[in-house]
Design goal:
The chain is an alpha/beta fold. It has 16 helices and 16 strands. The strands form 2 sheets. The chain has an 8-stranded mixed sheet with strand order 3-2-1-4-13-14-15-16. The structure holds 2H-imidazol-4-ylacetic acid and zinc ion (ZN). The site of 2H-imidazol-4-ylacetic acid has 10 residues, from helix 4.
């Protein structure tokens, strides 16, 4: 019996990784994509039934039987983009800090003086639940309009029990209400709040012994993160919190070796973390350790761009060393206020010398691996979720090349058209 498709999309080009759902793409394979000219994708019950040449797909799933057909000649279809590192839930905004940084004040100095993250902590603590929910929903809408169909979101602007839980509840509610899939991460150890300024170890004990178990018990987060950085939390403190999190069943992913080479990459390998993120200052040993243990390096090039750095993560060296590289936005109100993964692709190409194919795999299949979700998303293959983007672009290289303009035409999430002609579809 011929199964009926709910949706058939045909397009000038379909571009996706194939056969990489078991383990992330590394080395030369990281630059490989399958390009199908005059291709089609058939979707039913939210899942991909088939992808291939248009005539072959249409033979299996006749057009006249499909509930809906979208024909996009001259356009390019990719998997829905996946953003595996964001801080999307927060109160307030920090454009004054932006101006300060332009005048030469460093990011960490602003934080040490009680601004930066601590400024957002004040605003997030003060913001009622419903307002925080609506503000975060608007950010998700903007991500979706830019082609992001799944995002990880961290807590970390509460730094107290009540507000950390409030943030995680917002993420949980948005995961239910918003069309995007959301992956919650507990980042209670994001900074040291003023009330613990001279007692960082007491703060860490509080997070590890009181807050973390409550989060686990309420099943409010799947992952645990920490800002492992000079002047924030050191390697010993990070190991202590992350080990405790593992005992409680959390997956580990954390901010590592961003500004100072502390050995965060080695710690990620030692603990068997799913991902270590940023890594501008990763050492050779760190790369080898991560490659051996299969820890994904989630790189965030829009952050050094925003912080006006001359240095980016040594992506080419990591790829040569066999490390799996994924890309993410780091969307947050301070060090990276962009929602745009296409912009991240551009920066990955221009500043870290990724090829456009590597950049595409970085925001799709390897991003899915960074979240442990590659079995269900990250490529256009039968059985995976029907998460696709139709780009107003003649090919995939156009995406990082033609930057600063939103090229999204249509977004399909779980088989449903949710963005049409660049606009959100209501309801
Ligand atoms: O709000 O500045 N780096 N955390 C670690 C951030 C940047 C977010 C922020
Ligand atoms: Zn971050």
């Amino acid at each position: 019996m011929v199964e009926r498709a709910d949706l058939i999309i045909s397009a000038g080009k379909i571009v996706t990784s194939t056969g990489a759902s078991q383990s992330p793409l590394t080395g030369r394979d990281f630059g490989r994509v399958t390009v199908i000219n005059d291709g089609a994708v058939a979707i039913a019950s939210g899942k991909i039934l088939a992808m291939g040449k248009r005539d072959e797909v249409e033979k299996l799933y006749p057009l006249e039987q499909a509930r809906r057909v979208i024909d996009a000649p001259g356009k390019t279809v990719t998997p829905g983009f996946i953003d595996p590192h964001t801080h999307t839930v927060f109160g307030g905004s920090r454009e004054d800090e932006f101006a300060l940084r332009i005048s030469g004040v460093p990011y960490l100095e602003i934080l040490q003086k009680g601004g930066g993250i601590l400024d957002t902590v004040r605003a997030t603590r003060a913001m009622p639940y419903q307002d925080l929910l609506e503000k975060s929903r608007r950010h998700l809408d903007r991500m979706l309009l830019g082609g992001t169909t799944t995002a990880e979101i961290k807590s970390g602007y509460g730094l107290d029990l009540e507000t950390e839980i409030k943030m995680l509840q917002v993420i949980k509610q948005l995961d239910k209400e918003h069309v995007m899939d959301l992956e919650p991460t507990f980042l209670g150890a994001h900074a040291i709040p003023r009330e613990y300024r001279d007692r960082p170890d007491d703060f860490l004990d509080f997070m590890a012994e009181e807050v973390l178990p409550r989060v686990a018990q309420a099943e409010l987060a799947k992952n645990c993160d920490i800002f492992c950085e000079e002047g924030i939390f050191n390697i010993e403190q990070s190991r202590r919190l992350l080990q405790k999190a593992q005992e409680l069943g959390f997956d580990i992913r954390f901010h590592a070796d961003e500004m100072v080479s502390l050995g965060g990459a080695q710690l990620a390998a030692e603990l068997g973390a799913r991902s270590a993120d940023h890594l501008l200052k990763i050492s050779r040993e760190g790369m080898q350790a991560m490659a051996e243990k299969g820890v994904v390096a989630t790189l965030l090039p829009a952050t050094p761009f925003t912080l006006m750095k001359d240095e980016y993560a040594p992506a080419r060296e990591m790829i040569e060393a066999g490390v799996a590289v994924a890309l993410a936005s780091d969307f947050n109100p301070g060090s990276c206020p962009t929602h745009s993964l296409p912009l991240v692709m551009t920066l990955a190409c221009l500043q870290m010398k990724l090829t456009p194919e590597e950049a595409l795999n970085g925001v799709t299949i390897n991003a899915a691996h960074s979240l442990g979700k590659a079995g269900e998303m990250g490529s256009i293959e039968a059985g995976k979720r029907g998460d696709l983007v139709i780009w107003d672009a003649p090919n995939h290289r156009f995406l990082p090349y033609h930057y600063g303009t939103n090229l999204v035409d249509t977004v399909v999430k779980n088989g449903r058209v949710v963005v049409q002609k660049g606009k959100l579809k209501e309801g």
